[in-house]
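User: quick one, fold this
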Amino acid sequence: MSPRSASRRLRRCAWLLAALAPLAGAQGQAVADSSAQAFSHPVAGLDAAGLETFFEGRNLFQRAWIAGARHEGDSRGLGPLYNRLSCIACHPDNGRGQAPAGPDERMLSMLVRLSVPGRGAHGGPRPHPVYGEQLNEEGVPGVPGEGRARLRWVPVLHVGADGSRSQLRRPQLQFRELGYGALRPVLLSPRVGSVVYGLGLLQAVPDAALQALARTPRPDGIRGRLNRVWDPVTQRPAIGRFGWKANAASVQAQVLQAALGDLGLTSDVLPAANCMPAQTACRARARHEEVDLAPAEVQALAFYMSRLAPPAPRKAGDPAVERGRRLFEQANCSACHLPALPQPAGAEPAAAYTDLLLHDMGPGLADGRPDFRAGGRDWRTAPLWGIGLVPTVNGHSEYLHDGRARNLHEAVLWHDGEARQSRRRFERMTAADQGALLAFLASL
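Assistant:
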């Protein structure tokens, strides 16, 4: 790129960031709570009927499902194949899941996505012909589970821009007790459960705002891309904004897809059981007479997840945190982790620290598994609100899509691809400046 072209791109990006700068201190519907319940509050302003629906959805989110023909209001409907018994098992206290410590520990709030090369229905991942799009480790009585995923950690030496050496880790998957024959060839992507608060505010970001962000070049060659996905609710393509690769278009779509994929719960929108053709026992146990989740239950679950408030930033005015915020901006981290996103007219912006777009994060984080328009190196910019409260709420400090980062410092070091220059600026900082930037992140 010529110096003149680079200058024009920087001016356009500066205009965009300047337009967003007044939003940086906004908290929107955030709640000031730094306790273990920080991720569990409803947004402000719900009336009595709204609160009733919110708590109905919470009950469904926390419900432990059991096998059997479903009757509305009871806990039956699980399976025939599934991963966990409840939504909250993978999203503890509405927060982050955790990866196993090693191969002898089960995946409790983590799962493995599967596919084979090529495109499936509507341009999405092509399911494995025997195991589908997700390894379901469990089956109801009479239905063999698909197998056990075991994870071991492989050490990775990272040499920073300043010559510093850090011992990172990456996951390596192994499979045991496969119930339906060979799994390979297959594309794999281990994922921990993500946080579920603030989703309503992310859904409210106008499509036009995301399209504008995708069109606007930013410094360091950063340019986010929209994922275009199939929305099973509206039965048409839409902008993806939820999930690690932005592969779900709405909160309701996310709810329906997770209910079926993780719990085996069918709905009017996704009425077919999650059984592949070769899984005869699963197909024999599939319920065809009625779906498991009534429309009112789907609406209550989506309402609950849409009205969970994000936590407000903490330590406002702390000199180290304020210095860390400035360093965050100087390192150009804010080019992707935008301080705030617009909401519909008249509403406060959402201080989520994301652009909801896909970015190439380099070979180190690549899973090699495409998902609609997301390539094997692409990941959606993760929202940072509440990230510093994960140790308090969830009892661990693991980050990124597969939990490989054992703290925020390691999470930064894994950034590559479009984020390489920002990471290198961080690596060249003094220890004190790095500490300030990390203190800023911990305050969110």
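User: anything notable?
Assistant: The CA atoms of residues 98 and 109 lie 6 Å apart.
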